[in-house]
Structures are given as C-alpha cells and as structure tokens.
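REVIEWER CHECKLIST
Item 1: Sequence provided? yes
Item 2: Single chain? yes
Item 3: Sequence as submitted:
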Amino acid sequence: MPEKGVEFVKIDSLKPHLKNVNLTVKIIDVGEPRQVTSRKDRSVHTVAETLVGDETGCVVLSLWDDQINAFDKGDVIQIENGFTSLFRGSLRLNIGKRGNAQKVERKLEKVNTENNLSKIVYESSWNRTRIPFRRRRRY
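Item 4: Structure as written out by the authors:
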C-alpha cells in the first residue's frame, strides 16, 4: 500500500539520474543472471537484467543477488526509493541498498512494450571525445 505523501510515478516520466523513484510495475521478462566483480572490494555478485513495465512504457530493472530469486515473470512489484542510472548509454532502473521492492496483489493487465525507455541511447560525458589538457604558457 502506498504511504501518505509518497508520490508514485509512471515509467514514461523516468529520465537519467533520478532519485527516490516510487512506482508499480509488472515483470515482463527476466534475463539470464551473470557474475560481476565489484570494483570497490573485489567481491563477486550476481546481476540479472529484467524488463518491467506499466501502461505507459517499459524499462530495464537491474536485480542483484537475492532479489533475482524473489521475483518471477508476471509478478507485479512496487518499488520504493529506487533510482535511475545510465549503463552503456541506456536508462536503467535500480532498487539499490536504500530502496525496497515487494510483490503486490494488484493487476496490471496492459503493459506498453512499444515505449522501451532503455532502447534510447543517451549521450554521457564518457562517450564524448575529450579535449586534451594544455598548460598555459607563463611569461
């Protein structure tokens, strides 16, 4: 159940680098889990890309470790305090450490898979060619 004062958004309003994202989505497809190594502490984690959507569009949700087995295709989940990011130029929805996701007993019959926000390629500062640093001459 949504708490008072918590604003829930639809997928079509998502854009890169949002915080405190609250929404209700249906899991359309769960990708194959893969192993990744953390750059921070070199620990190994499992991640699976999951396509989720509502009546306004769909986006890729990254599920980590225990979250992967907690949800199945067709489940309707409520995400609270999530965030969006860019991974290789495409939009990703994340639950994160501070976020929460849980199954809800709500029906989402129609999901718009035509409006996939993760297929849009965003230009990030890492993709641009960098101008080399030049020192100023001192006279």
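Item 5: Key structural point noted by reviewer: The chain has one domain: 11-119.
Item 6: Recommendation: ____
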